[in-house]
Amino acid sequence: MNARSAGRYAEFACSPPSQHRIDGLQDEWDSAGELRAEISGPAEVMGDTAEVLVRLAYNGRSQGAKMPLQRQGSTWCIDES
Hints:
The chain is an alpha+beta fold. It has helices at 6-10, 19-31; strands spanning 35-39, 44-46, 49-58, 61-72, 75-78. Strands 1, 2, 3, 4 and 5 form a 5-stranded antiparallel beta sheet that branches. Strand 3 and strand 4 form a beta hairpin. The protein is flat and about 40 Å long.
């Protein structure tokens, strides 16, 4: 996200989004004056799932959000389901 590459972000998704979704996200990110995300707390792991607190800044607005993660083999991915 911080690199403003929706394609790169999609590589971390458990189920890759459609190209249409990636293109729409890229358009949104390209037009954003400010776009930043940072991990702001430890991950809460519950077996093969986890949540990590992320601080998002987007066009002058900032908010915290829990990003759901899922273990797939030995790696973690973003669970957008």
